[in-house]
Amino acid sequence: PSPAVSCNEGDAPVLIDAAATIAESDSADFDGGVLEVSFVGGSTPNDILGIRNQGTAAGEIGTNGSNVTFGGVTIGTFNGGNAGAPLPIAFNANSIPAAAQALLRNVVFENTAPTPSPNPRVVTAFVTDGDGGISSGATKQLFLEYAVTFGSGSTDGSSAIAVDDQGIVYVTGAFHETMDVDPGPGVANLVSAGSADIFVVSYDAFGNYRWGQRFGSSRSQNSFAIAVDSAGVVNVGGAFAGTVDFDPGSGTSSLTSVTNQSNGFLLELDSSGNFVSVLDVGGIPLDIAIDGTG
């Protein structure tokens, strides 16, 4: 397989292989042949295969309806490519090897889902020359990455991120005012207690909101480190001031800092965001390391 391609959620169509090669040794063209690009693994109904429309200048691939051109001259027709379906292009007598190669280099991938599956897609391509010959084919892996944004109308910031073995993401930092931490159509507001509060938020491997928690008082707090162990326990470290209840549930587990100073804390939550334990550690932890025993 050729090197993998990475693309981000919401990207415009991306080229699958801009350096692909096609050679024809026994004919001057691919008349009657077909170039077919298709998914052989990981595809979803929101995956699309298409052709980049560069234009009609010399050496450029263009599209006009179902026709595909090379340097403004029609070299074949195409259909399909939507909803994970194959993309076949039927060549005519104008499909010289340079045109076929340029076409393959301009096949693109796009995903239209609001939160695409991050599973790798495997794409294969093969070509027939119209004279009975068929290529050995080539494969390409595509990896999708996502990004989520959230914040209030004030100054907010993420300070650390951790990812567990299932791809679940945990983020921590500080925020002011009211912040919606659900990047989807839902609303999951966290409301500060009056100054900078700590947040811990989790998203699944697809970027969907799982849960969010806040911790604070009328004074400023912050977190600087997060790590998750093999059992899914989320460890958060940072600084707190005043009296802060670190149990986001119905219970209470409060720590009180030294007057007019900030103390360090080490908080444990389970993988669902429920309170496990908290320690006043005096000095402020800027990083967390977890050994093999947790």
Gist?
This protein is mainly β and 294 residues long. It is built from one helix and 23 strands. Strands 1-11-10-3-8-7-6-5 form an eight-stranded mixed sheet.
Question: In words, what does this structure look like?
Answer:
Strand 16 and strand 17 form a beta hairpin. The longest helix has 9 residues. It is elongated, with a radius of gyration of 27 Å. By secondary structure, it is mainly beta. It contains one helix and 23 strands. Helices cover 3% and strands 43% of the residues. Strands 1-11-10-3-8-7-6-5 form an eight-stranded mixed sheet. A four-stranded antiparallel sheet has the order 12-13-16-17, with no helix packed on it.
Write the layout of secondary structure elements.
Elements: E1 5-8, E2 14-15, E3 34-41, E4 47-51, E5 61-64, E6 67-70, E7 73-78, E8 87-91, H1 97-105, E9 107-111, E10 121-127, E11 138-145, E12 157-163, E13 169-175, E14 178-180, E15 189-191, E16 197-203, E17 209-215, E18 222-228, E19 234-240, E20 243-245, E21 254-256, E22 263-269, E23 275-282
Parallel strand pairs: 1-11
Antiparallel strand pairs: 2-9, 3-8, 3-10, 4-9, 5-6, 6-7, 7-8, 10-11, 12-13, 13-16, 14-15, 16-17, 18-19, 19-22, 20-21, 22-23
